[in-house]
Automatic annotation (TrEMBL):
GO MF annotation, one: ATP binding
The EC number(s) this enzyme carries: 6.3.3.2
Positions with a binding annotation for ATP: K7, K8, E9, L10, R11, R136, I137, G138, Y139, G140, K141, G142, F143, Y144
Protein name: 5-formyltetrahydrofolate cyclo-ligase
Binding positions (substrate): I54, E59
Alphabetical list of Pfam families matching this protein: 5-FTHF_cyc-lig
InterPro entries: FTHF_cligase, FTHF_cligase-like_sf, NagB/RpiA_transferase-like
Amino acid sequence: MKMPTTKKELRLHYKNLRKELTEENIEEKSLEISNQLISLPIWDKTYYHVFLPIQEQKEVNTEFILHLLSGKDKEIVISKSDFETRIMSHFLLTDNTKIKKNEYNIPEPVNGLPVPSQTIDVVFVPLLAFDIFGNRIGYGKGFYDKFLAECNPETIKIGLSFFEAVSQIDDVFESDIKLDYCVTPEKIYRF
């Protein structure tokens, strides 16, 4: 079988691969990803944006990363998505932050202290697939492309993936923002 190379084919392929993962696989691989992150040169920053996983989509469990960040006394930023404008607003995660799932099962802050995109130093980016050039494929709604475009050019973008890179994604757009790193349970890709 020919490996898929378009965003649409890859999206479908990796969604199906994810469906096969058990809860134990997800926990184990998420912990391995978190352990890999420790060796990255990113720990001198202040604001770290973390996505809260959609369990129904079997995303990387970022709880281990949250523990890592709070252990290092970092400012943790989480988002809320507006599906009409496709814009994300960002909030500081504190002990008082209330989190509630939206209609798409995305855990989001109900309230909190807003954080402008420009102040975020590091973004952990969810994805379905990525290639060896640092291009990523998400769910196709464009939330992260818009958000990453608002960040500083120096903001470090780190993809988190259960699976290794594909050789290339055929239909990449000029506006697609590349990752600086992608971390899998097995290795770290630097772009």
